[in-house]
Amino acid sequence: MAHTAAALGLTKPNVVEPLQVSFAAIGIEPSDWEGDVLAVAVTEKDLCRSPCSSFENAVLKRLDSQLGGLLSEASAEEDFAGKAGQLVVLRLQGQGFKRLGLIGLGRSAPFTAAACRGLGESFASVAKSARAGSAALALASPGGIHGEFKPNAAAAIASGTVLGLYEDNRYRSESNKVHLKHVHLIGFGYGPEVDRRLELANYVSSGVIFGKDLVNSPANVLTPGQ
């Protein structure tokens, strides 16, 4: 039997640790959060400056003050205007968070599930690049998302984050380990209802990943007996 299996050249997948990311919605100021990476989702309007070149947005203004003007300086140098798809990440020292990222949303905050999933994927790319074990996503303007949509928005972002972290490394000689374990969402409300939506989104995303693994499995691995 062993000789037959060898002759067939059965593919042996690598043992890959499943994604295990916890999500929680919390009600604190983004500048007070502590962890590896703090990402702030900003619209083009959020980047408006006062005549003295400081941010008018309260969240960005507080962060910039905490960083001694580094945020406004870096965003100007990188020509970051909050356009959709734009990213800028700063490595910091002496702060509660090791990195601060800005994620551009374009002209307005996401108001559809698809847009929120896209934001989650962008957030995942920031966390992966930083090899972060903990990360938080905050909205520069929490009021940009209507209150009744916030639980759904948080759930869609969680789904996008999990799917954005996913890579099928089972058949690669070298795999990229996902370090992210804990995610906090700031500005999306908090409480039992949001927690329930986040937990459900995590389960559903895990199911989607399981389906992708099945589809991507070679025929000599995913046999009828399995």
Quickly list its features.
6 strands, alpha/beta, Leucine Aminopeptidase, subunit E, domain 1, 6 helices, 226 residues
Structural commentary:
The protein has 226 residues and is an alpha/beta fold. The protein has one domain: Leucine Aminopeptidase, subunit E, domain 1, CATH 3.40.220.10. The chain has helices at residues 2-8, 58-66, 70-77, 113-129, 150-165, 192-216; strands at residues 22-26, 35-42, 87-91, 97-104, 134-139, 182-186. Strand 5, helix 5 and strand 6 form a beta-alpha-beta unit. Helix 4 (113-129) packs across helix 5 (150-165) and helix 5 packs parallel to helix 6 (192-216). It is globular, with a radius of gyration of 20 Å.
Spell out the blueprint of helices and strands.
Blueprint: H1 2-8, E1 22-26, E2 35-42, H2 58-66, H3 70-77, E3 87-91, E4 97-104, H4 113-129, E5 134-139, H5 150-165, E6 182-186, H6 192-216
Parallel strand pairs: 1-6, 2-4, 2-5, 5-6
Antiparallel strand pairs: 3-4
Helix pairs in contact: 4-5, 5-6
Domain Peptidase M17 leucyl aminopeptidase N-terminal: 58-174
GO molecular function: manganese ion binding; metalloaminopeptidase activity
Organism: Aegilops tauschii subsp. strangulata (Goatgrass)
